[in-house]
Amino acid sequence: MLKLEHVTKYYGNFKAVDDLSFEVKPGEIFGLLGVNGAGKTTTFRMIIGLLDNFEGKITLNGKKIDYNITDKIGFLTEERSLLTKFTVKEQCLFYGRLKNMPEEEILKKLDYLLERFGVPEYKDKKIKELSKGNQQKIQFITAVLNDPELLILDEPFSGLDPINVELFKEYIVELSKKGSMIIFSSHRMEHVELFCKNLVVLKDGQAVLSGYLKDIKEKFRKKNIIINGDVDIESIRKIKGVNEVEENALDIIVRIDNQDVAPKVFKEVSKSKNIIKYALEEPTLNEIFVAKVGESYEK
Predict the structure, then answer these.
(1) DSSP string of 139-184, one letter each residue
(2) pLDDT tens string 76-129
(3) At what angle do helices 132-144 and 88-98 cross, to 10 degrees?
(4) What confidence category does residue 68 fall into, taking pLDDT thresholds of 50, 70 and 90?
(5) How far apart are CA 87 and CA 122, in angstroms?
């Protein structure tokens, strides 16, 4: 288990992380979210041992994280961290050796992962010759080459098309089923909702939202009503407790204070005989994030 207990980190007089506590269990995909400057990167660096001058305690399976433990950790950074003049093979041999992996094991795992992600022909190509999406594949491969017990993924789907996003998702889920602890951070809230049952949202270094996603949605109370049909939108807007009515290409989305408002909206909607869909849904994670943090995560 990864455990952070009352962790605080200063840069001079600036408090980058403020009394942060959470834990990630084996097999769990945990969401760590926040806008730029919220404290995510500092938290990642403390977890992997790059920053050690902080208050509080960080342990992996009960032990302080140092160079005796980092071989069990994989980290995919948001920024490109590849050596572009290296070939893919050289890059992975370099990273694998840093994790104390035997060369034979590195090459065997590399061949498997290149085949798995559909790029076996890139083994002897230089990193700089690859597209942004294929560079991201290689960066991901270097992060999982050692079958890490703890894997940190910061914007893992950057530069990927939907097909390759699915390939990544499948492999991440497989790792979690094998017992890896995974910390997942992404600007795409729909990806976070697919993966993460438990999460923390940071703002100015503090956890402003934490817990299981299903509980967070229940406590948030605000709901969405999804309507497909011919309705009087202006009449719905006038209903007390209706915060917003939005039309998209397919549906009308009515955002309400709580589910007690739903019967009033239904009464108005039922005046129309041309209703294909009427559904009361939980708010999206993105809506909750904006409400708690005060700004959109996507920039």
Answers:
(1) HHHHHHTT--SEEEEESTTTT--HHHHHHHHHHHHHHHHTT-EEEE
(2) 998 878 999 999 999 999 999 999 999 999 999 999 999 999 999 999 999 999
(3) 30
(4) confident
(5) 8
Task: Classify residue 210 by burial, with Cβ atoms within 10 Å: 0-12, 13-18, 19+.
Answer: middle
**C-beta separation of 152 from 180 below 8 A:** no
- Distances from the Cα of 27 to the Cαs of 41, 95, 136, 173, 237, in angstroms? 23, 24, 24, 9, 45
Inter-residue contact 213 to 29 (CB < 8 Å): no
CATH 3.40.50.300 given to domain 2-214: yes
pTM (2 decimals)? 0.86
CATH classification (class only), 223-282: alpha beta
Q: Are β-strands 29-33 and 14-24 bridged in parallel, bridged antiparallel, or unpaired?
A: unpaired
SS3 (DSSP) at 284: coil
For the record, the structure tokens of 204 come out as: 């100015």
Q: Is the pLDDT of residue 298 over 80?
A: no
Cβ-contact 205, 20 below 8 angstroms: yes
- Rounded to whole angstroms, the Cα distance separating 102 from 206 reads 41
Q: Kindly list the domain boundaries of the chain, sorted by start residue.
A: 2-214, 223-282
Q: Using CA of residue 61, residue 64, residue 69, residue 72, what is the dihedral sign?
A: positive
Tokens of 58: 């960080």
pLDDT value at residue 158: 87
